[in-house]
């Protein structure tokens, strides 16, 4: 095996398609099609690898070399199934799956998400091929990976938990890490305090247990929809249909009738226990730290649904590009849509990898004094995870930390261009926040002031092109 890329036309390979790669809602079909149509963007590893940390190490090593291909492991020792991971590491690949140009990723995502369509209920599907219930449930046979040496145990890192409101039938989808607790239960955490946490609390008020289904494996647009932030009346399964351009095909789970994707690889059905606390964590989280902040929630599994010849769809944990992109692209898209609707001077929004989910850069074509401040206030109010927002002029490339920091160094004065808001709810996973997750938030206005007179130096296009042509003829120097 080698990490050196094959001889391919990388420019051609990065070109965006005009239509989304839907065809089938079955991930297995998608992988076969994607390998055929975009072989430069898939790395198949046939070497034997350990399920303990080696897959994560592969992704980290690739990222250090500027590599972000989709990874398909065919020989994971002792796991019994193949593994697909790094699906969301590339924004270009996500754009391709949506049929979008990279520059229009936010607009394409949000416009499709707002064309939500209800799921289509089927009587049968691949995930119903094998069903184990009651005493036949054995979670010790479920494939799991250890992502980092600091993790408490092997984890399910891609589990999408689906719950339905008993009164309205409306649903919620959200990601929750989960580790083996017993042959029939998982230890998980609802630390995001989102809709699932509220639904579980409401069930306690009714002296009931909340039925849920954890989906492992599905079309990437279904997985992307699970990261959407919706009002309580919304349903991420409808968003999945909008992203796909057709209704999400679902089947009902055998015990509680929860609607889950028909082509899932695994579905675990059961209840969230409200009177049991279990040990859970630490786990390598998106902050880049191993976190043991957890609600220590027990998920009792009563049914296991599994398709024939399943694969394990894994989401690389920690502050990997995959983990961050999966959460931030829906968030960036929502913020870009809301900001541009209210503030036409907003030119771009970007959440950098370097800031995990806590930093945001916003480009502004500022037409009046104070406009950048108002935009930053809106961002800090709308997104509870944000701690720092930097506003820059529209000549700054938001995807370049170097350019943003240069603007901060040369266009920003701390005494007049910053403000702090404190005592606000933030992410409980932020290791610097208080134990209850409260945080302060910082706004930095790195736009040019009205009296800013400095002029950026420039190079003529002809000079740049000539330099590129000369360098292209020079032998590559190895250090």
Structural summary, described in words:
The chain is an alpha+beta fold and 479 residues long. It folds into 3 domains: 10-101, no CATH class; 107-313, Pnp Oxidase, Chain A, CATH 2.30.110.10; 343-445, 3-Layer(aba) Sandwich (UbiD C-terminal domain-like). It is 26% helix and 24% strand. The longest helix has 22 residues, at 321-342. The two termini are 23 Å apart.
CATH superfamily of the largest domain: Electron Transport, Fmn-binding Protein, Chain A
Measured by DSSP, the beta-strand proportion falls in: 15-25%
Largest sheet: 9 strands, antiparallel
CATH architecture of the largest domain: Roll
Structural class: alpha+beta
* Dominant shape: globular
- Total tally of structural domains: 3
Q: Mean pLDDT, rounded to whole units?
A: 88
Radius of gyration: 23 Å
Q: What would the CATH topology of the largest domain be?
A: Pnp Oxidase, Chain A
Q: How helical, in percent, are the residues?
A: 25-40%
CATH class of the largest domain: Mainly Beta
């Amino acid at each position: 095996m080698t990490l050196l890329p094959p001889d391919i036309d990388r420019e051609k390979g990065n070109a965006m398609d005009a239509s989304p790669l839907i065809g089938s809602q079955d991930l297995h079909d998608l992988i076969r099609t994607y390998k055929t149509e975009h072989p430069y963007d898939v790395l198949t590893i046939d070497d034997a690898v350990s399920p303990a940390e080696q897959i994560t190490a592969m992704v980290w090593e690739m990222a250090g070399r500027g590599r972000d291909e989709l990874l398909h492991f065919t020989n994971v020792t002792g796991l019994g199934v193949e593994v697909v991971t790094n699906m969301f590491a590339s924004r270009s690949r996500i754009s391709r799956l949506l049929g979008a140009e990279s520059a229009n990723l936010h607009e394409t995502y949000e416009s499709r998400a707002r064309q939500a369509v209800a799921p289509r209920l089927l009587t049968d599907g691949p995930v119903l091929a094998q069903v184990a219930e009651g005493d036949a449930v054995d979670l010790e046979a479920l494939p799991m990976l250890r992502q980092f040496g600091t993790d408490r145990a092997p984890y399910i890192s891609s589990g999408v938990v689906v719950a339905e409101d008993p009164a309205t039938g409306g649903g919620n989808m959200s990601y929750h890490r989960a580790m083996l607790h017993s042959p029939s239960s998982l230890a998980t955490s609802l630390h995001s305090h989102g809709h699932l946490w509220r639904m579980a609390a409401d069930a306690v008020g009714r002296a009931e247990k909340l039925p849920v289904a954890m989906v492992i494996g599905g079309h990437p647009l279904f997985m992307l929809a699970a990261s959407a932030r919706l009002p309580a009346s919304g349903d991420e399964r409808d968003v999945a249909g909008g992203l796909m351009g057709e209704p999400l095909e679902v089947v009902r789970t055998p015990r509680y009738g929860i609607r889950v994707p028909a082509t899932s690889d695994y579905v675990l059905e059961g209840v969230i226990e409200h009177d049991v606390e279990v040990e859970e964590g630490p786990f390598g989280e998106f902050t880049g730290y191993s976190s043991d902040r957890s609600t220590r929630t027990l998920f009792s599994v009563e049914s296991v649904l599994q398709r024939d010849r399943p694969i394990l769809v894994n989401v690389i944990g920690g502050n990997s590009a995959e983990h961050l992109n999966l959460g931030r692209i829906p968030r960036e898209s929502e913020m870009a849509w809301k900001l541009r609707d209210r503030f036409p001077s907003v030119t771009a929004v970007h959440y950098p990898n370097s800031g995990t989910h806590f930093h945001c850069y916003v480009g502004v074509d500022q037409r009046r004094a104070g406009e950048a401040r108002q935009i930053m206030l809106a961002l800090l109010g709308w997104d509870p995870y944000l701690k720092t927002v930097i506003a820059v002029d529209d000549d700054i490339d938001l995807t370049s930390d170097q350019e943003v920091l240069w603007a901060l160094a040369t266009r920003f004065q701390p005494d007049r261009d910053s403000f702090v808001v404190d005592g606000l709810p933030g992410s409980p996973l932020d290791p610097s926040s208080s134990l209850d997750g409260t945080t302060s938030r910082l706004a930095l206005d790195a736009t040019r002031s009205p009296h800013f007179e400095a002029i950026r130096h420039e190079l003529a296009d002809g000079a740049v092109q000539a330099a590129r042509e000369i360098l292209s003829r020079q032998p590559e120097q190895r250090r």
